[in-house]
Amino acid sequence: MRVSEAVEGYLAHLSDVRRLSPATVRAYRSDLADLVNHLRDPRLESVDLDQLREWQWQASKAGQAKSTSARRISSVRGFFAWAKDEGVLDADVSLRLVSPKRGRTLPSVATADTLASVLRSLEVGARDGDPIALRDHALLEVIYGSGARVSEVCGLDLDDIDHERRTMRLRGKGDKERVVPFGLPAERALQAYLVRGRPVLRARADDTADATSSRSRGTAVRAVFLGARGGRIGPRAVHALVTRTVGDAIGADALGPHALRHSAATHLLDGGADLRAVQEILGHASLGTTQIYTHVSTERLRDAYRLAHPRA
User: Fold this and answer.
1) Using one digit for the tens of pLDDT, what is the confidence trace for 113-137?
2) What is the C-alpha separation between 12 and 211, in angstroms, rounded?
3) Sign of the four-CA dihedral 271, 277, 282, 288
4) Catalytic positions
């Protein structure tokens, strides 16, 4: 069996058996396709540790980040472990492939005052009833107010929101669902958008080529957040919105939607929220993933101490 054939079997396993998200499967596909190209697609059983190390070395020499290298090696290890478990290989040659050590990188966060200023500005901009302005205000309020991932917000449907309880059902990694609360400012922004903005955007869908298929029409009918042409909004549009608004406010050129999620988690902990509660809100499988935000909060306390204490 060629490496490329085995890779297709592994990707099908990730999608159909492990139920990983399409974005995660695409990342695995990209990493393993690079390996196939480097090896020139030999038979799987002929691949040895030296070839894998050479592939790793070439990427490192080209300036690849340690975090990217670690992810790619994880992809390869998972692939070879699956091949052995399936009986395609007698031995897993990737076991001795070493990942580079990664330093801890604290997530970028915006201050609560900065985000309050940005959201006030968006609220003012939405008062004239422009549907895009109403949507943008509601979108950022929801991301920051719930700590949701951008993919979760883009996939949000109308019946996922309980306005009375101010909760929403999110579908996270591995298609796992969780219910998270959101605040009154997000509810007000959502109501304004759903009443005055979304119907206008939804009407545009009937006049665009995007709405020709029944599948496109169905998903747009259910979607909470719509794009300028009436279809379900995509992650790229949300990324551009956050970069344009929050990024400009704090002087960052590439600040994506995840920064709002980081900020929400940090501000929850700053306000005294329990770490496990924050874990549940964010949908982290491991408490260790959530604990990085305690380091962010500690750093903010240190900065405040250095600025304010006379003996600092």
Assistant:
1) 889 999 999 999 999 999 999 999 9
2) 30
3) positive
4) 149, 173, 258, 261, 284, 293
